[in-house]
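Quick one: C-alpha cells for this chain, please?
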Amino acid sequence: MENLFTVLGKEDVSDKNRQLFEQMEKAFGKVPNLYSVLAYSENALASYLKLEGSPTSLNSKEVEAVNLVVSEVNSCVYCLSAHTIIARKAGISELQSIEVRSGTAAFDSKLDALVRLTKAVTEKHGHIDTMLLNEFFEAGYTKENLVDVLVLIGDRTISNLLHAVAQVPVDFPLAKELA
C-alpha cells in the first residue's frame, strides 16, 4: 500500500499545530512522525496529546506494560519501537519487554495480572473471562485502576490504528520481533 500521508514539517501545519510541534521539539528533540500525521487535523493532535498526557492511577511501569501489550496485539511496529525505549526508562528491561509483549510478566506477579488482563481485553474487545478481573483485583488493583487501564488501551489503540492506516516511517530503533 502506498503511503497516504507524508511526514509534515512545521511549515506544513497550522499555527496551532506549529506551536505543539515546537513544544514537542523542546521536550523530545524532535516531532515523532506519528504525531506529525495527527497534525493533518486542526484538532486531533491537541486532543491526542491531552489524552496521552492525562493523569492516571497507574505507575509508569504499568503504563508501559499496557502500551507494549496493546501494541503487540495490534501489530504496531511504530508503537512497539517507541514504547520499548520508554519502557526501559520505566524499569522494564528489554528481555522483560519481550515477555510482556507475549502476554505475561512472570518477573512480577502484580504486573502479570495487569498484562494478562490487558491482552485479553484488547484481543477480545472487552469481552473477557471474569476470572481475569478477579485476578486483577486480587493482585491489588482497584476499580479506578481498571478504568485507567481501559482508557490507556483506547489511547494506544488510536495510535496503533493511525499507524496501520497511515504507514508513516518508524523513526525509532525497531523493536525486536517476537520469536
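The mean pLDDT is 95.
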